Automatic annotation (TrEMBL):
Organism name: Rhodococcus spelaei
Keywords: Acyltransferase, Glycerol metabolism, Lipid biosynthesis, Lipid metabolism, Transferase
Protein name: Diacylglycerol O-acyltransferase
O-acyltransferase WSD1 C-terminal domain residues: 334-473
Record carries keyword Lipid metabolism: yes
EC number: 2.3.1.20
A GO CC annotation given for this chain: plasma membrane
Family matches, as InterPro entries: Acyl_transf_WS/DGAT, O-acyltransferase_WSD1-like, O-acyltransferase_WSD1_C, O-acyltransferase_WSD1_N
Length: 478
């Protein structure tokens, strides 16, 4: 029998519109190994790892008349060369040209008649580099049972791990009559399930996604009013702009050491400073009480006593393993008003640190959580979890989503190619002109800024202002 999409997987599938493709993106920049990494090498490598992510060879099959949620079925015509593609920049390709390519690829929805993912090998980058851009639909990656493909193609050593060979044979696809009979039987056995499916098909996607996540009352209580009015919320197009920022993790440690905050607090303070100066650059009215409300999904470990500890980007992986033995790893979200009206960077940081401390103490009552059952670090999946929480809440409650997922402290490799940089590309929700994704990796913190091409035509200005805001806090630390 075919596996039915979960309620939340289905909500993501139906939530997609022409202006809001619901795929997660990941941009990896690698150092080309001696002899290079060509398309055939990547194709062979990905094909060997596909057994670790079986859903990447399945497509979505809808049930007639919307009687039940769609099902996953094996793609009997699966063609890996359709999903793993090749692109190139005119040599020597610049980072700006790469960002333009990523923006164009991000704008395109995935083909729903095939498994919902694509991977691009981008050649021609300057300085002996290659890039791999991956798109995976949010319904495909749930973080618990279905992982994102980048988690299985990268290795912690130059020696690729052994993966058992598998002769894949697609299962028989169910007939339409079988799917309809199963749906009718399910509706009779569980009438509430059938009613939920009908509401989803008719468009009550936010409500069904919220129920799938769990009780979000604790999050909602923090936002009794709607989010402030800012240019971050506007009608968006189907086209995107993309920018990146690369910073040193040691800079955030310096700020933490001086002011007694966390690394995550310092990151939020840097973002607040950049958003403040961006609003001023647009001539927006910024008063002492101005704020930007952000939804911030954060990975935490929750102990048996209910205490939560944020996953700090600099925690050694071995220490994480020890902590995991006595705690659950979860993702919880909280709404924070970023004080963009405060001109003093140290005061801004103080406000954010106090707010995050208060939320940490209350985190045992926050039920909008999704358990992440996996070993090691998985930033791509943690970004997926953050998106799932965000999509289950009304977009009137916040101005933008900031996902921050810790990655490994040591280098990763794809065959003989060393991973140099990794940038998340989070999708835009309806009327959300900007999304910010962060990932720490190998001593750096990488920002991926995905913006609407029209509403956020100056997304590169935000990127430049992030560097300025970080330097401003560092100057205060010195």
């Amino acid at each position: 029998m075919a596996t039915r999409l979960t309620t939340q997987d289905a909500s993501f599938y139906f939530l997609e519109a022409s202006t809001t493709p619901m795929h997660l993106g990941s941009l990896a920049i690698l150092e080309a190994p001696e002899g290079g990494l060509d398309y055939e090498d990547l194709l062979s490598h990905v094909e060997r790892r596909l057994p670790l992510v079986p859903r990447y060879r399945q497509r979505v099959r809808e049930v007639a008349f919307g009687l039940a949620r769609p099902v996953w079925v094996d793609d009997r015509d699966f063609d890996i060369t359709y999903h793993v593609r090749r692109s190139a920049l005119p040599k020597p390709g610049s980072d700006e040209q790469l960002h333009d390519l990523v923006a164009r690829l991000t704008s395109r929805p995935l083909d729903r008649t095939r498994p919902l993912w694509e991977m691009y090998l981008v050649e021609g980058l300057a300085d002996n580099r290659i890039a791999i851009f991956t798109k995976s639909h949010s319904s495909l990656v749930d973080g618990a049972n279905a992982l994102e493909i980048n988690q299985v193609i990268l290795d912690p050593t130059l020696e690729p791990r052994e993966v058992a060979e598998e002769l894949w044979m697609p299962s028989r696809e169910p007939r339409e009559a079988e799917l309809v009979l199963d749906a009718v039987a399910e509706m009779i056995a569980r009438p509430s399930e059938g009613a939920a499916t009908i509401r989803m098909v008719l468009g009550d996607l936010v409500g069904e996604a919220t129920k799938a996540i769990g009780n979000v009352a604790a999050v909602v209580r923090t936002a009794a009013t709607t989010a402030p009015s800012t240019p971050l919320n506007a009608t968006i197009s189907r086209n995107r702009r993309f920018a990146t920022v690369t910073t040193d993790l040691d800079d955030y440690r310096t700020i933490r050491g001086k002011f007694g905050c966390t690394v995550n607090d310092a990151i939020l303070a840097v973002l607040t400073g950049a958003l403040r100066n961006w609003l001023l650059s647009r001539g927006e009215p910024v008063t002492a009480f101005s704020s930007v409300r952000a939804l911030v999904p954060i990975a935490v470990y929750v102990t048996g006593e209910g205490a939560a500890e944020a996953v700090d980007p600099e925690v050694d992986p071995a220490e994480r393993d020890t902590l995991r033995e006595s705690a659950e790893r979860r993702v919880f979200s909280w709404l924070i008003d970023l004080p963009v009206g405060e001109p003093n960077p140290v005061v801004r940081l103080s406000h954010i640190a106090h707010a995050s401390e208060a939320h940490a103490k209350q985190s045992r009552t926050v039920n909008a959580q999704t358990l992440v059952r996996m070993s090691g670090t998985a930033p791509a999946t943690l970004h997926a979890m953050g998106l799932r929480v965000a999509s289950g809440l009304s977009q009137r409650m916040f101005n933008l989503v900031i996902t921050n997922a810790p990655g490994p402290r040591t280098p990763l490799y794809l065959d003989n190619a060393k991973l140099l940089e990794m940038y998340p590309v989070s999708p835009l929700l309806r009327n959300q002109a900007l999304s910010v994704g962060l990932t720490s990796y190998d001593g750096h913190v990488y920002y991926g800024l995905n913006g609407d091409r029209d509403a956020m035509s100056d997304v590169d200005v935000v990127a430049a202002l992030l560097y300025e805001a970080l330097e401003e806090l560092l100057d205060a630390s010195r």
